[in-house]
Specification:
314 residues; alpha/beta; Rossmann fold; 2 domains; two-stranded antiparallel ribbon; 41% helix
Length: 314
C-alpha cells in the first residue's frame, strides 16, 4: 500500500513524501495529537511556467460563453501571473503530461446584480485556476428558471446539468444574505440532480467554497455550502474563503482595475483555496469510480438484475 501511494504522487514530490513516510517527522502538540509532516520541494522555474490552453481548447465560442474572466488585450499587469504556485503548477503539468487531460472546473456564483461581488470573486478564482492549466467554465445563472418540474427541458437547465457532468470539480461562491445562501445560488444546486439514470453529475467531484459578505466576516454561507457539498456526495476541500466587506476589497467602480481584488490576506486566502483545490483534484480524479462503488448500490443492482432475469425466464 505504501509503494502504491508513493507511485501515485507526482515524481518530483516522491522523494520528499517517500522520505517522510518511511522516516516520519512527528510534531506533538499540547493535545497529545501526533501529526506527520510532509516536506515539498519548491522550484522557481516551475512557479511561473505557462500552462496555457491550446487554441483548440480555448475556442472563441467557449471563451465568449464561459470565460468572462479572461483579461482583454489592454491589461498591462495581472497579479495572478506573479503568484508562486510551484507545487501545484508542477503537479498540474505532470498530470497533463500523464493523462493528456486537463482538470475541468465548473464555477458557480450567486447573484444577478450588475456589480456582483460573488461574481467578481468567482472570476478571480477562475483566473488562478486558468493559470494552473485548468479548463474553467463559469456558468451564468441569468435566465435559469426557478426549480420546478415543468422546466427540466429548459436550455439553461440542460446546460447547467451538462456542465456538471462534464466537470471534475466545482467552485462555489455565494453572497451571504439573511445569514445564509442566496436564492440565486441555491436554485442552481437544486437543478443539479444526484443522479440521472446511471449518470451522477456531482458524485466524487472535488469542491472549493467561498462567500462574500456585505458586512463583517461571517461563515454562515460557507457552512451551508459545505453541507450542500456533502449532500451532493462531493469532496469539499478543508480550506475555505470568506471575504468581509467585499465592497472594500475592490477599487471603486469606474476606477482602474475595479474588477480585481486588491492585495490583502483575503486575496491570499482565495489563492490558498484554489491551489489546494487543484492539488486535491489531481490526486482524487483517477479514483472517482472507486469512491462511488458502494455496497448498498451493488446489492440494489443485483436485485434488479435478478428481477430482469426472472421476468425473461417466465
Amino acid at each position: 500500500m505504501l509503494y502504491y501511494f508513493i507511485q501515485r504522487v507526482p515524481s518530483t514530490l516522491r522523494p520528499a513524501i517517500s522520505q517522510s513516510l518511511l522516516r516520519p517527522k512527528y510534531s506533538t502538540r499540547m493535545s497529545s495529537t501526533v501529526t506527520q509532516t510532509v516536506e515539498t520541494t519548491h522550484q522557481p522555474d516551475v512557479s511561473y511556467r505557462s500552462l496555457a490552453l491550446t487554441p483548440s481548447e480555448d475556442t472563441p465560442d467557449i471563451r465568449q460563453k464561459y470565460r468572462p474572466f479572461i483579461l482583454d488585450n489592454n491589461a498591462t499587469e495581472d497579479w495572478v501571473n506573479n503568484l508562486d504556485l510551484t507545487t501545484a503548477a508542477d503537479m498540474a503539468e505532470q498530470n497533463l503530461r500523464t493523462t493528456n487531460e486537463r482538470l475541468k472546473v465548473l464555477v458557480l456564483y450567486g447573484s444577478l446584480r450588475k456589480r456582483s461581488y460573488s461574481r467578481l470573486v468567482a472570476l478571480e478564482a477562475s483566473r488562478i485556476l486558468f493559470r494552473l492549466g485548468c479548463d474553467v467554465r463559469v456558468f451564468d445563472p441569468e435566465g435559469l428558471p426557478m426549480k420546478n418540474e415543468s422546466d427540466i427541458a429548459h436550455p439553461k437547465v440542460q446546460e447547467l446539468r451538462e456542465l456538471s457532468v462534464w466537470s471534475d470539480g466545482h467552485v462555489w461562491v455565494s453572497p451571504e444574505q439573511h445569514g445564509n445562501l442566496t436564492a440565486v445560488f441555491k436554485n442552481q444546486i437544486d437543478w443539479i440532480p444526484l443522479s440521472t439514470g446511471s449518470v451522477r453529475p456531482t458524485q466524487g467531484r472535488t469542491l472549493a467554497i467561498a462567500q462574500v459578505c456585505g458586512g463583517s466576516q461571517s461563515f454562515n454561507a460557507v457552512n451551508s455550502l459545505r453541507i450542500l457539498g456533502r449532500w451532493m456526495r462531493m469532496f469539499t476541500i478543508p480550506n475555505q474563503s470568506s471575504i468581509p466587506k467585499a465592497y472594500t476589497q475592490f477599487p471603486d467602480e469606474g476606477q482602474p482595475g475595479d474588477q480585481r481584488l486588491m492585495p490583502s490576506g483575503n486575496r491570499d486566502r482565495l489563492v490558498d483555496c484554489m491551489e489546494e483545490f487543484v492539488k486535491y483534484t489531481i490526486l482524487m480524479r483517477p479514483h472517482i469510480g472507486l469512491f462511488g462503488d458502494r455496497f448498498s448500490e451493488r446489492e440494489e443492482r443485483k436485485i434488479k438484475e435478478a428481477k430482469l432475469l426472472a421476468a425473461k425466464s417466465s
